[in-house]
Design goal:
227 residues, alpha+beta
């Protein structure tokens, strides 16, 4: 098996799996559907290509929380107008983000051809990938590398990407597809993408397990590392 590693870092990120128009929540860590969406965008898949999207769900997925960040609330208003041009109503919306968070996502597959295809797409994306919402692009080191091994095992030994965490050298959580770590406690999460079609976005539940690990810490100074 080969695993693709992605660094999800930036000023703001947002991964809502239970959001509504007036309240756009974010989960504490990236969803599998969000990462699948980034991959699909990089490959140039259109939103209505449900079969292509569902095929990506077969990828094994795990994500490590190198820095959880801070929860930020943003206040918005949106106006709705009648066909006549008169104002119908004003919506008040609250949007939540993760500020200054750092994650490492891992997607793996036994299909070497698929991994190579995805890797090429991530290096030269067809559409701009975003960290959960439009306007939230990833950092320049979004694509880290592709390595041999299963996602959870790779994340256990891959160097931490947060300089603050490197100083603390404490354990960090890994959230993964439940079948990858059957011995770990798990719960259902509504982030299995069925369709990204804006006319009828559809998601299903998937089992997600969590485990605490002490990853590898780089001792040397990284001038380009997360700060």
């Amino acid at each position: 098996m080969k695993t693709i590693l992605l660094k999800l870092a930036g000023p703001l990120q947002s991964y809502g799996t239970s959001s509504y128009f007036e309240t756009r929540e974010t989960d504490s860590h990236p969803s599998k559907s969000a990462v699948i969406g980034m991959i699909a965008a990089s490959l140039g898949y259109e939103r209505y290509r449900d079969e292509d999207i569902r095929a990506l769900n077969a990828l094994d997925f795990a994500v490590r929380v190198d820095r959880g960040g801070r929860l930020m609330k943003d206040y918005h208003t949106a106006k709705k107008y009648k066909p006549s041009g008169d104002l119908e109503r004003t919506y008040v919306t609250n949007r939540y983000y993760l500020e200054d968070a750092v994650f490492v996502a891992a997607v793996g597959s036994e299909d070497d051809a698929l991994v190579e295809k995805i890797t090429k797409g991530l290096k030269r994306p067809y559409y701009q990938p975003y960290l959960g919402r439009r306007g939230l692009p990833p950092t320049w080191d979004f694509y880290l590398e592709t390595v041999k091994g299963e996602p959870v095992d790779v994340l256990k030994r891959y160097p931490i990407q947060d300089s603050v965490a490197r100083e603390r050298k404490t354990s960090v959580p890994i959230y993964a597809d439940a079948h990858l770590v059957p011995e770990a406690p798990s719960e259902l999460r509504n982030d299995r993408a069925v369709s990204f079609d804006q006319r009828a976005r559809t998601f299903r539940f998937r089992g997600e397990a969590v485990l605490e690990v002490i990853p590898v810490y780089k001792d040397e100074h990284d001038a380009f590392g997360s700060i």
